[in-house]
Amino acid sequence: MKKITTVTTVLTLLILWSGMALAADPLPKSKATPPSQKPSASAPQQPGSKVPTTPGVVVPAAFVDLAVTDIRVQELGQGALIQVTVKNLGTASANANLYQLRVLLNGSLLPGGDQPLFNARTPIEPNQTRVTGVVPTQSGSTEVTARLIPSGAAASDNPANNILTRTLDLPEVRPDFTITDLSLMPDNRIQVTIRNNGGYAPRDAQFSLEVSAGNDRLGLPWGIQWPNPRETIVATTTDPIVGTRNVRATVNPNRTVLEMNYENNTLSKEFTAHVLKPDLIVRWLGFWQESDIFGTTNKLVIIIANIGKATSPRTIKTEVFYGDRLIATPTLEGPIGVGSQRFNTGVPVVPYDTYRVTVDPQNEIDEEREDNNSLTARVELLR
Fold it and tell me: Do 225 and 162 share a domain, yes or no?
């Protein structure tokens, strides 16, 4: 019995010794695998992406894809518009300024040519639509084609969906010409402002406008064209008015062009003409050479400009100074219209010396200004 107890004690001591050894010198552990690296908050992002990029993962780049998605007719009272809808099917904002809209009616381009997109200064965001209205030039069953014309950086846009064709029943849209303003120009001519609030005029229709001051018909230049829809033009008479006159202007006076409304074709205003005056200045001094049997004489050349709004009198007096000495008072034969005129005088001069010439020295001519009549300069050879 004593022997068994001794063996048990020895086994107990061995077990305790083994535990202490393990605690003091544990077995080597395998190296832990580090957790996956997480992207920092400042990790770069691709355009249009809302989550950080992960190494090895390719994020598609943002792109623009404008498409013509619809064409329809929108009737507006007596008029109508062809409405073309453009949608951004991409993931990036589209610069609308980089696109034009080309609309064909039965294969014919609108007279105004390619149109800008509506509100072109504002970007078209992803999944956003933009509706542009154009005025038709035809009526009845019409094949309407709308095509986006990209330019610059937009040229790489998807061309497959940039065009759409529809057959529409278009109502007749007549023009609506109105005179919005009459104004008096500084030279007493009348300026007429005309706007078209309707559709296109027929291509073969000749422009027609009458402007009268009292009982006098005022002339107009040739080549004026009817304004296109929503376009404003200005026509200026070739004749001025005199005194106080009632001016009356009528566009399409004989109603040769069918319009929505004729009640706004005439406008009348009373104007008092400006008092127009000449304004003479000495623009240049020079000399010309006159040769005879006695030799060559250098004589004064004066260029006088009328920068006013009326023709000068026929007789124009001048004074010529050499230094402070008055050497001549030549009288020039006018009149001088608005513009410049050269006068070769008989006053001898020393080439390339300095002279002073004054036009209308006694202020006998009623001018717009009286303080700009003199010029002091070297006389140069007239070539």
Answer: no
